[in-house]
Each structure stands twice: as structure tokens, then as C-alpha cells.
Design a protein that fits this description.
This protein is α+β, with helices and mostly antiparallel strands. Helices cover 23% and strands 41% of the residues. The strands form 2 sheets. Strands 1, 4, 5, 6, 7, 8, 9, 10 and 11 form a 9-stranded mixed sheet that branches. Strands 2-3 form a two-stranded antiparallel sheet.
Length: 160
């Protein structure tokens, strides 16, 4: 019985370590160059200095957004912070509309953690949710070129 308990504890510990090892580590924000700036709330992203960032708020959230201009339409990347903006997880409706999606967990240098979930909709367009409790950044129903542009921005995620 002691051997079985010891083996079970070892397997659980090994699995936990494996899960932790698979998490993306979000780094400390670097100092932006003269041609860059940081945008966002607690989660920051590096963008070109000339990027136009819209800002807004309501009674229970604050928001920012940037646009990708396609050939005939603009597509937004939006960030929200507040008590009711979620935890970075995609909605059930988004998951139901997606034949393909992944869920990856991340941890920051300050021990904050969250989720990064990209996916493809049935129409072939893309979405991505990235965030943690109280802060969510996302795009939805965008073409491949807009998704690639926004994904490069997600790749710069950092914490001060």
C-alpha cells in the first residue's frame, strides 16, 4: 500500500511538472526602443510608436483597441480590463463555432497566470483570446493576414 501511494504521488508530481514546463513564460517588459511603445493594462504589448490606440470605458471596464486595415474592411484587436471582462477563456459560443482551437496556459515573472486560446471558425477565419482574470485581449472573425499581424503583437506580451 505504501509503495502504491508513493508511486501515485510520484506520477502526480511528474504530471504537474510537465504541465508547468509546457506553460509559456511571459517576460518582464523590455524598455521600448525609440520606434516602439507599450500598450495595454497589466498585460503589456509592444507596438510601433505610430500605432493609433483607441481608448474607451464604461462603468465596469476600460478598453483599448487597434485596427488592422484589410483591403476592404478594418479588423480590431481589443483589450478590456475590469471585474466582468472574463479570464482569457473563449466563450462557449466561440468554441462551439470552432472546428479547431487550442488552449495554452502561461505564467508571468510575477506569478500571474492566464490562458492563450487561438482558433479557427467554421468560415475559415480566425479568433484568439489571451488574458487572465480581470483582463482579456482578443480578436474575432478575422482573415489570415489580420490574424498574423495581431499574433505578432501577442508574441510581444510582457508584464512590467
Amino acid at each position: 500500500m505504501l509503495l502504491k501511494t508513493t508511486v501515485s504521488a510520484f506520477v502526480m508530481l511528474a504530471c504537474s511538472c510537465l504541465l508547468m514546463a509546457q506553460r509559456r513564460v511571459i517576460p518582464v517588459c523590455p524598455r521600448p526602443s525609440d520606434t516602439e511603445k507599450l500598450i495595454g493594462f497589466e498585460i503589456k504589448f509592444i507596438v510601433p510608436k505610430d500605432t493609433v490606440v483607441a481608448q474607451g470605458s464604461d462603468t465596469d471596464y476600460v478598453a483599448w483597441g487597434i485596427q488592422f486595415s484589410g483591403e476592404t474592411k478594418r479588423f480590431p484587436l481589443q483589450g478590456f480590463q475590469g471585474n466582468r471582462v472574463g479570464n482569457g477563456e473563449p466563450s462557449r459560443d466561440t468554441i462551439a463555432a470552432s472546428p479547431k482551437f487550442t488552449r495554452r496556459y502561461w505564467v508571468a515573472h510575477n506569478k500571474r497566470g492566464g490562458v492563450d486560446s487561438p482558433g479557427t471558425l467554421k468560415n475559415g477565419k480566425f479568433w484568439r483570446n489571451f488574458g487572465m482574470t480581470g483582463e482579456n485581449v482578443w480578436y474575432y472573425d478575422v482573415p489570415a493576414d489580420a490574424a498574423a499581424f495581431f499574433d505578432r503583437i501577442f508574441g510581444t506580451a510582457c508584464f512590467p
